[in-house]
Amino acid sequence: MLLGALLDAGLPLDTVKEAVNALGIPGVEIAMATEMRCEVRGTRALVDVSAAPRYSPRQMLDAVAGAAALSAHTRERATAALNALFAAEARVHGDDPDQIHLHELGTADTLVDVVGVVHGLEQLGVERVYAAPLVLGEPGGPRRPGGYSNPAPATLEIIAASGAPVAPERAFHAGVGELTTPTGAALITTLAEEFRQPALALNRIGVGVGGKDPAAFPNVLRLWLGEPTPPVARWQDNVVLLETNLDNATGEQLGFAMERLFEAGALDVWHTSIQMKKNRPGVLLSALGPAALESRLAEVFLRDTPTLGVRVRPVGRYVADRDIVTVETEYGPMRLKRKWLRGEVVSAAAEYEDIAAAARERGVGWSAVSNAVNRTGLLGSD
Question: Taking burial as the number of CB atoms within 10 A of a residue's CB, which of 120, 293, 303, 348 is the most buried?
């Protein structure tokens, strides 16, 4: 499916054949066909290796290393994908990676898939790869005596070793079985820099179709090609928002809870006046924090306020780059926090503690110190 998506995006079939020829694999036939999956058109890569020899892990790695016609970059990335595959198989079977006996993965098809995809990405000029969470399909027991359950053990080992995210099971996956193979998992986890959707100006879409054709959903893989469009600020999506409604909390409790939430690692905490049931005035207590600290923050809500429950939802946010510099003013050195957008300073603000300390020490008002800071002309400076 990955190879089909590359072909659908414009990769010439002859380019794939040249990569396979560079490996010195005899008896391989490669073709492409346009097929439909639930009214979605795509390209299917047809690889016939029935006349090709089988390969051991060492033979596959040697074939890649000896393919002088391929770039060093392609050989390096293909080797990484194969090593991830062999390490997973070795762990599953309890063998040394050089000694494992490959069953389905021992065919030349594995080499064609790995090298074809890596070489194809390079030929299309792809410099960075991102991926969505992996879709594994329907979990289930072996479908034949001596077979393995889905997800395949090697697929899970590859995903666990890379820390790649997995998409949740869906009801429409029922009966479909495997949707991510060990080879596919090895390619995606070694090629993808991050598992997220980057900001892109899309210019091409490649659709690869698989051999399965379930009625419930189109069995396709979509490849998005485009140029990066840097966002105005850094995108942060590993954040959660925790909230609870309170109609029986005192001001002291709210203040204490805010302190405890910040101590627990919250990025921001606030409360908002709301109207609750029975016409009672209440407070909405909210906290923003890293997803990794969700449980710790929820415990503060439950322990330090009267609430019986906490709502949690993932949120994303844009975060401007910032730095702190020290400038000299007529009232002494002042720390200023500068906000950066697209490489330039767009605002700056003095630290509260510094202005307050100078105002007290010199016996002047807040505005006098603040105006002195403004006269430094920091905004837009280096």
Answer: 120
